[in-house]
Task: structure prediction
Amino acid sequence: MRFHVLTLFPEMIRNAFSTSITGRALNAGILSLETVNIRDFAEEKRKGRVDDAPYGGGAGMVMQAEPVYQACRSVLSELKEPEKARVIYLSPEGRRFEQKVAEELSKEKELIFLCGHYEGIDERALQTLVTDEISLGDFVLTGGELAALVMMDTISRLLPGVLNNGDSALDESFMGDGLLEYPQYSRPEIWRGLKVPEILLSGNHGAVDRWRREQSLLRTAQKRPDLCSGAVLDKKDRKFITEAGLSAFYEGCRHAPKLRAQGEYAMIRNIIFDVGYVLVGYSWKQDFKRFGYDDEGVRRLADELFGEKIEGGARPMWERYDRGELTDGEIRDFCLEKYPEDREVLTWFFDHVSDWAMPLSDFADLIAPLKEKGYEVYLCSNYPETLWKKQVAVQDFYVQVDGEVVSFQEGFGKPEERFFRLLFDRYDLNPAECLFLDDRADNCLAAEKSGLSVLKVDTKKARSSAVKVLLGLSPLKEERDIIER
Result:
């Protein structure tokens, strides 16, 4: 994502955006920030002044059209596709900025923010340049810079690799079905006589997830009842809502998409698989032990390379590698330079990528039977080009696949919804007729929002259940016979 900010105060933008999470994302190359000082485009005789008195009289000054126009054109002239660029004017007259707007804008490659000041900007410049007017709310700021920073921060959090934990953005307020986030607790266990809820100390992850969901439902009804109507509820949600006396808040909410029961009729015609940890597994953790690493050493290096919670780790670079933004040599050199004490094992890792990947037979062996039943099979994966060729395209199941969308080919990937839409459009698929299998929560959520039925296969139990579902799918010829009869 490349942000361009047209402003009278570029240092205000740079100083704020170059710290904390967004600062790390800038350093990692995930984000790019350009600030353009509108004063640089003032008429020479005015010595940097870009404002003048309004025609018709009135209080204050108005920013002139020409400096704003020239500042914006200086950015547009450097873009490959300037006609597609969105120029956003921060204005109380614009549409309200909400999480859904942030999600929409996060799919763009370039965003230009125009920050007004004084009494505003000459209307003629706005009519000529602006594609979007957006407001933070019904209040007035001294300029658009703070609004631009709020928007850029919100948008940045939705981009792959910006947050250390990919699930963090998904769990926050307004994400998913738009409810408020559950309450959070940290050490100490007892603080000034107040205890952490026992369920969070239980180690029962399923129970914790259920508690958090119920707290989210309760908190939203108590604090933001206007958000309740957007909730997507399953049977457990509805039972809790009834018992908690919250039914009035959640009337008319949608039912959560559910997988049909074994043997029950459904119009699934296409199976879409993720690849990594779904169809293909990896042995590199075990292989590292041959180089003298104990369990803790393997865990430490694995976290450094791929961990989402490791600040300054290599994860953002791997995500760029997946999207085709880095070459094999660049990702290799980065890791070798960053972890010189692990040079021997990392050299083996990059030189023998074919040796540490293998098919996961529980799903891979089902592709042929699914094809025999008349189902089409597709792949939807984040994967770098060389590893795809050496780890995926060589597998026996690959020749049976009907189509694929892969991040290195497209320059973007999951969990972006447009990645799923690309698959639908390319192969003329109806999302309602597709079943998607993935091991990551963020990808599954995006798939559901795209209209797919989803199976999250992140545990042995979940994989086993999914295998039973796939084995239980009726042959499509039989389904057609049922329809005809």
Summary: Confidence is low (pLDDT under 50) at residues 166-175, 259-266, 478-485.
